[in-house]
Amino acid sequence: MNDQIKWLKIAYLAGIILDALSLIPMLFPPIAELMWGFDKFNGEYLFAMGFGASLMLGWTLLLIWAYREPRKKS
Predict the structure, then answer these.
(1) What is the pLDDT of residue 74?
(2) Within 10 Å of residue 49's Cβ, how many Cβ atoms?
(3) Does residue 36 sit within a domain?
(4) Domain that holds residue 64
(5) What is the DSSP letter of 71?
């Protein structure tokens, strides 16, 4: 594995880990309260976090896909 591919995989892996960890408080309000100090979980909050979590999950899956094959096969 050349250096460029190695660094790409490291960047993808860091993104996967951070995005997956970000999903936890987005999906579970008690954890968001613990981590972020939020204490009001109204409809707008739940809508925004649900919408954001779906985008975060999609991005995480794209990073997993990229991590598995970071270069185009010839």
Answers:
(1) 52
(2) 20
(3) yes
(4) 3-68
(5) S
